[in-house]
Amino acid sequence: MSALSRQEIEDFLYHEATLLDEGRLDEWLNLFTEDATYWIPCNRNDIDPERELSLVYEKRKDLADRVFLQMSSKRWCQRPPSKTSRLLSNVQQRETAEGKVTVSSRFVLYELRGGSQASFIGRYEHHLHQVNGGWKIALKKVELLNNNDMLPSIAFLL
Amino acid sequence: MLSISPDNCHELVSEDRVHRTIYTSPQVFDLEMERIYEKSWVYVAHETEIPQPGDYKSTYIGVQPVIITRGADDGLIYGLLNSCRHRGATVCQYEAGNANFFRCNYHGWTYNNTGKLTGVPFRKGFGEDFDASKLGLIPVARIENYAGFIFASLSKGVPSLKEYLGRAVEHLSPFAADGPHPMSLRNGVMKYQYRCNWKFAAENAVDGYHPDFSHHGWLDMEAERRGNKFTVSGNTESSVRMFPYGHSLLDFTGFGGNINSYQFGNLLMFPNVVFLGIQIRVFRPIAPDLTEVSFYATRLSDNTDAENAKMLRRFVEIHGPAGHAIPDDVEMHERCQDGVKVKANEWLPFGRGLHNEVIDEGDGVYRVLDSSDEAPNRNFYKEWKRLMAPSKESHTSSPTELATVGR
Description:
The structure holds two protein chains of two kinds.
Chain A lengths: L5 H16 L3 H5 L2 E10 L12 E6 H11 L12 E15 L2 E14 L2 E16 L2 E11 L14
Parallel strand pairs in A: 1-6
Antiparallel strand pairs in A: 1-2, 3-4, 4-5, 5-6
Chain B lengths: L16 E3 L6 H12 L4 E5 L8 E7 L2 E7 L6 E5 L14 E3 L2 E3 L6 E3 L4 E3 L22 E5 L2 E5 L7 H5 L17 E2 L4 E6 L3 H8 L5 H4 L1 H11 L12 E4 L5 E4 L13 E5 L3 E4 L2 E9 L2 E7 L2 E2 L4 H14 L7 H14 L7 E3 L9 E4 L2 E4 L6 H14 L15 E2 L2
Antiparallel strand pairs in B: 1-21, 2-11, 3-4, 3-6, 4-5, 5-24, 7-8, 8-9, 10-11, 12-20, 13-19, 14-15, 14-23, 15-16, 16-17, 17-18, 18-19, 22-23
């Protein structure tokens, strides 16, 4: 099976969103390929991350360090931790090659912390690769609608 | 403390402590905008942000919007207040770009990119004594470029920029256009909302006492996952260096570990900019409890693309709203902003290190061999107090004289 149905794609994305909203970050990290990239561009979505500022641009190894920090009891900006709830919609399969699928979706994410609520809105792009018969995330790109604007702390994973 | 007035606000700061209301009072905030932001040199741009004739950048001096432009015809750098002379609307809505003119979209008044009023629809209606030559965009009183760093002032009465920056620029001159590592700043900006007073952000940049505690989680991660161990708080191999006019350096030499390439330290230039080595952080006060902080990343022209990319990745990882370090600082600032509402906790001390030995380096520059000494903040508030004291002098920007700097 080298293609994914819409149902399978949606199930995958909803599962990923659930792991994040439930703070199951080790399981979340395991959804990524070994050389995966997690990327939140800054200012524009078509920047060259090797030359221009991103909010986050890191490979799996550094993403694992981020997850470690996220779960630290000394990460004060997450003590108490953010509570999040994210809704995904408009799921579209953009390109398909053998064992590779690019998926676009829209998200609305609410974060509640310290009695104040923030909202994050934008588009996810997932590059899913078939690995050992299953599917893993090779790239997760988070295009925030307001990535050129003044942002609050984003000390959780989008 | 009795009620705060323009005559006594400077008494909210003494040699070794500050009154909690300097962080909360709208009246103090308004006086700071008038007496500090209108009467100091304020960092506004780096020359590489506006390299070509017609290039512009919009920013703020305190709460006042300004446009920094490179003249389309003469290539000189101008600072123009971003406010139409008719109804006051901003005439430039973009953060950066290239334009030969700025048109107010309200009634169509048009200014060239050095601020001259060149177009007024239905001009006859204003009568015969209408003088467009007096209605250009109001220029800043002073604008100067030092080693590529452009500072502006709304007051004519400031000392020369060279005197103001003094020997603090020794740390930056290697990165000037004619230095060994010319820097370029056109790599995007991250803008971060700090729900706190601007001074908490400024203090923190040269606070060598906090890192091991505020950044406990991050430093643990670096040590445990990467074997990258550095000691910061109270490191006597390291030091703080103070300069006249409120500038100071938290010198990172001796911290050990890899914090960042070219990260010689955090250099705070009073009142609104910190050089994190060669990366730049600019504060914009918006309200007593709200500050916008902009992070600019730097490339060095003598670096390879790979070296610049590595430097950028490290900067992105540490700084900005999703960085490993800054969200914990912001968390502390926001807790401070909340906590200073406690009236009984009236005076907050800055006396740490007052008994340390001071090494006089001449020209009003001195050093203390203890990175956790609070001398940088005492130095910052000494300048704050000097500027906040009532003065009979009045410096205002004149709309008729245009301040510019050469290429």
